[in-house]
Design a protein that fits this description.
By secondary structure, the chain is mainly beta. It folds into 3 domains: about 100 residues, Immunoglobulin-like; about 120 residues, Beta Complex (Ferric Hydroxamate Uptake Protein, Chain A, domain 1); about 650 residues, TonB-dependent receptor, beta-barrel domain (Maltoporin, Chain A, Beta Barrel). The chain contains 9 helices and 53 strands. The chain has a 22-stranded antiparallel barrel. Strand 12 and strand 13 form a beta hairpin. The longest helix is centred in the N-terminal third of the chain and has 18 residues. The chain is elongated. The two termini are about 60 Å apart. The relative contact order is 0.11. Pfam families: CarbopepD_reg_2, Plug, TonB_dep_Rec_b-barrel.
Length: about 950
């Protein structure tokens, strides 16, 4: 009887167990000595196929584990395998295992074992995004390498909701670059541009990047000055292996390479993007135009003879592009200190030639009624030097010290030859622009990471940054002659020398910008309860301080004739400004100073912030993160006017910025997120500085507005995300943003020419939806599909600006006034630079044998390039489909060859004018009907072919 009863009970238990809900096992795996996570450690239930690999934090999850007692086997290369018997799993419950592995105690040949958290792989970035409290997307160094993107600008456009303007400025969710905050290694970067708030992403070569994370929702830890996103760029830190690599790349661009072009000469080390001392103004020149222009014409001509006669152009054949890269990483010990270093040196010289169709219209009753038409032959040569030098010192498992230095210098030599007509006036026109620009960025940071017990972490960063931008001796000249009648002989061109200097006709422009930034940040995190819980309660706190100093100065000199100098002005470009012609006497030339006092300014910005945020857990599935950030900012702007320093701006603002991020875990692979944040958008120095800058390519003036106010933004985001495997994801995100006093460009009403400024609109809103998918086929039985990965993302966005009845801005004299918009411009329109849709897609294939290829696609919807008014309609940048193809092959782990074809379709870059003011550009841009739209600017960049050979000199493997 007892035997039967035991058998019955055993059978019932087996049945109950079979039909019971399964449980799960989760935990963490660490190095027993260093306490660092063992990324990729294998966890397996003996006798089953249930297993997992540890993620970037050493955590693992085994789902759908049958109820009962199991043996767990944990293994990792060069570590002793651990068996944990009698692990009990109960129905619907979670069993937690937190364990450590010991090293095997015997060295593997050519293997050095280190504890190191990998952050630059696709799995690592996906795992990081999954665990972040704010809504974020990102791209890893591994994916960048597959795409063969040359710089950060090319790489980041693969991220959902992102597009690129002018091949260097990032737009997130269709919002202009002014609405982005950019941080390098957690320190805010300065703007690299004079005219607007923008960071030039093409300054960063892709091979120095560890990963880029784009935060779409706000948090207390992030800077409050954003609406599109916060872009955090992390450069490479500690190598996972000792290595020395070199690479050389040759590039061929259709319509550029081997073409005959015209360029100009700059003295100095042009191949390094530097210029000679003769390109700068002599210190003998009087500082103020009022003092200079009171001199006699002969005295002024004497100063003019100090300027080199470097106007002549030279014919040259464009050589192929060249890129060189040297990379080295080392890890070694100094006593008990683990030391690592990464050094990266890049050099490139690239070329771009375009023939640009440029047209201006009368904008009367009929479309395409041409006022001016030109053909620009635009040739530019860019050189870039980049150096990354990072040191890491690991004193103990609880204290790390890092020193990171990044230097980038870019030189751009641009020559524009403009041929065309002023059709209505009946003149043939030939213009020349000879421009050189140099930009330099240096950042150096020292940071420390501290662990105070198991519950508290503390890190600090102190840094210094410098940005420099120079435009030495930008030369511009305009020739004209009456358009000859049919059959008649054309008369020679004559240079136009106006009585007073202006930026269009004839002159030399000099500018320089220096900006210095000192930063200090301290961040802390304290965990409550068991620190190895999957979602322990945490509190985060920190302070951020920044002092920014900028000084900008511009000088402009124009040539004018004394008496009748027609004979000289009809000469060729290389002889007109010879010293014997710049005499200041009758029949000769002299110079005048067209500089205004407001063309130079100094700016000071003091920025201080403090934040506090904490997690509130609602069971094991829901977590709420509440944050509060307070930001104090003081912007000051000064100019020296008639030898007296004048305060133009002194804005002191304190703004509280609350934030909320909520995550609900539908399952271990599926999350729902909600986020709210209050953010802001400050005006940049240049947007407030009331000096006028002339854009030769667009024939437009740009001036600042001292009356600008800080914009305030309310952000709401919702996201569903699903992670089928460690390197797969599917997500859908919706967002809504409301702006108060958004900063927008404004076309100043003027009788002729284009003059832009910056104004505060009344309000604006932007909303949309984003979708992203990353799919692999690792479980397929087909080898081709096993090696295949599909990546795609798309965004649909709508925005609108309500300017209100009046806006406040400068007139042509610089005086601030209120503009009544009645009859001047539309009071409602989309936000400037906002794209209504964005699509990115990629097919990646990688064989274990070393073959890789990918095909990448990108397109954005038409977006406002230049805001217009009734007399000058809005100009849109039109969509263009871009397809890139990359193929690479590794040979014996030492040599890699890469072939890249970018912009395979070579569709035209096209800017079109909304003549009929219906907010869109139609397909009819050739007729003169009332509904036709008009092409303003159109050209092709040319498909780009690159061939790279990369060689490594042996790697000593370091297993993370």
């Amino acid at each position: 009887m007892k035997t039967k009863l035991f058998t019955l009970l055993f059978t019932l238990a087996a049945v109950v167990t079979a039909f019971a809900d399964p449980g799960s096992i989760r935990g963490s795996i660490k190095d027993a000595k260093t306490k660092e996570a063992l990324i990729g450690a294998s966890v397996l239930i003996e006798g089953t196929q249930i297993g997992a690999a540890a993620d970037v934090d050493g955590n693992f999850v085994l789902s759908n584990v049958p109820v009962g007692t199991h043996k767990i086997i944990i293994s990792f290369v060069s570590y002793q395998t651990k068996e944990i018997p009698n692990v009990r799993v109960e129905s619907g419950n979670i069993t937690v295992i937190d364990t450590e592995l010991d090293e095997e105690g015997k060295a593997l040949q050519e293997v050095v074992v280190r504890g190191n958290r990998a952050t630059n792989t696709e799995v690592a970035v996906i795992s990081e995004i999954k665990q972040l409290k704010p809504i974020a997307v990102g791209i890893s160094a591994a994916q960048i390498q597959k795409s063969q993107d040359r710089d950060a600008a090319a790489a980041i456009r693969r991220v959902p909701g992102i597009s690129i303007v002018d091949n260097r400025f990032v737009m997130i969710r269709g919002l202009g670059s002014r609405y982005n905050a950019v941080l390098i290694n957690d320190v805010i970067t300065p703007s690299t541009e004079v005219d607007t708030r923008s960071f030039s992403f093409d300054l960063l070569p892709s091979n120095i990047i560890d990963r880029m994370i784009v935060y779409k929702s706000g948090s207390a830890e992030s800077p409050g000055d954003f609406a599109g996103g916060v872009i955090k760029i992390y450069t490479k830190r500690r190598p996972d292996q000792n290595f020395t690599d070199v690479a050389i790349t040759g590039g061929y661009r259709a319509n550029t390479t081997f073409q005959d072009v015209q360029s100009h000469t700059r003295s100095g080390a042009n191949w390094l993007g530097l210029w000679g001392a003769d390109q700068t103004l002599s210190s003998a020149f009087p500082k103020r135009s009022a003092d200079f222009n009171t001199l006699s014409s002969q005295e002024r001509a004497g100063f003019g003879q100090l300027l080199p006669n470097s106007w002549a152009l030279k014919d040259t054949k464009v050589s192929p592009d060249l890129r060189l890269a040297f990379n080295m990483g080392r890890r070694f010990d100094i006593g008990n200190v683990d030391v690592s270093n990464i050094t990266n040196i890049n050099y490139s010289m690239t070329n771009q030639f375009s023939e640009i169709d440029l047209k201006l219209y009368q904008n009367g009753l009929n479309a395409n009624d041409v006022f001016e038409k030109y053909k620009d032959s635009n040739y530019s040569r860019q050189t870039r030097i980049g150096v990354l030098h990072n040191w890491t010192f690991r004193f103990s498992p609880v204290f790390n010290l890092e020193w990171k230095t990044l230097f980038n210098q870019m030189g751009n030599t641009e020559t524009v030859v403009r041929d065309g007509q002023r059709v209505v006036d009946g003149y043939d026109i030939k213009n020349y622009s000879q421009r050189f620009e140099n930009r330099s960025i240096v950042t150096t940071q020292v940071s420390g990471d501290h662990k105070i017990g198991d519950l508290t972490k503390l890190n600090w960063i102190t840094g210094f940054g410098y940005t420099g931008r120079w435009e030495p001796d930008w030369k511009r000249i305009r020739f004209q002659r009456p358009t000859p009648d049919a059959g008649s002989e054309a008369i020679p061109y004559q240079a136009v020398a106006p009585i007073d200097p202006n930026p269009i006709d004839l002159g030399r422009f000099y500018s320089k910008l220096h900006e210095r930034v000192v930063t200090l940040a301290v961040n802390g995190e304290h965990t409550f309860g068991n620190p190895v819980d999957r979602e322990p309660n945490k509190i985060r706190f920190g302070v951020y301080g920044e002092r920014k100093d900028r000084d900008y100065s511009a000088r402009f000199y124009g040539y004018n004739n004394v008496g009748n100098a027609s004979e000289i002005l009809r000469g060729d470009l290389g002889s007109i400004f010879a010293p014997q012609n710049v005499t200041g006497v009758d029949g000769g030339l002299t110079i005048k100073d067209g500089t205004k006092d407001l063309d130079s300014y100094t700016g000071i910005n003091n920025y201080y912030a403090a934040y506090l945020s904490g997690d509130v857990n609602f069971g094991s599935k829901a977590i709420l993160t509440l944050g509060f950030r307070g930001e104090y900012n003081n912007q000051q702007l000064h100019s020296t006017i008639v030898n007296e320093r004048k305060e133009l701006v002194n804005n002191i603002v304190f703004i509280p910025l609350p934030s909320l991020n909520f995550t609900y875990k539908v399952s271990e692979k599926q999350n729902l997120r909600l986020a709210y944040s209050s953010t802001l958008n400050r005006a940049e120095f240049r947007e407030m500085a009331p000096f006028t800058y002339f854009d030769f390519n667009l024939l437009a003036d740009i001036r600042g507005n001292t009356a600008l106010k800080t914009a305030k933004i309310q952000n709401i985001d919702a996201k569903w995300e699903f992670y089928p495997t460690t390197n797969e994801l599917i997500s859908v995100t919706g967002f809504y943003k409301h702006f108060k006093n958004p900063i927008e460009t404004f076309l100043i009403p003027t009788g002729n020419g284009l003059a832009y400024t910056f104004i505060n609109a009344g309000s604006a809103r932007s909303y949309g939806v984003e979708a992203e998918i990353r799919k692999g086929f690792a479980e397929s039985t087909n080898r081709f599909f096993q090696n295949l990965t599909l990546v795609a993302n798309a965004s649909l966005i709508k925005s609108s600006v309500d300017l209100g009845q009046t806006v406040e801005g400068p007139d042509l004299s610089g005086a601030i006034q209120k503009y009544d918009l009645t009859g001047i411009t539309d009071t409602k329109r989309p936000m400037a630079n906002q794209s209504p849709y964005l699509v990115n897609a990629g097919v990646y294939y990688a064989e274990p044998s070393g073959w890789q290829w990918n095909v990448l696609y990108n397109v954005f919807g038409q977006r406002i390039f230049a805001v217009g008014n009734v007399d000058n309609p809005t100009v849109y940048e039109m969509p263009r489909n871009v397809i890139d193809l990359n193929i690479s092959k590794k040979f014996k782990n030492n040599l890699e060859l890469r072939l890249g074809i970018q912009d395979l379709l070579n569709q035209p870059v096209r800017f079109s004018q909304d003549f009929n003011h219906d907010g869109k550009i139609g397909s009819d841009v050739t007729t003169k009907g009332p509904n036709a739209d008009q092409d303003i600017r159109k050209f092709r960049r040319g498909s780009y072919f690159t061939l790279t050979a990369a060689f490594n000199f042996g790697r000593r493997t370091i297993i993370p």
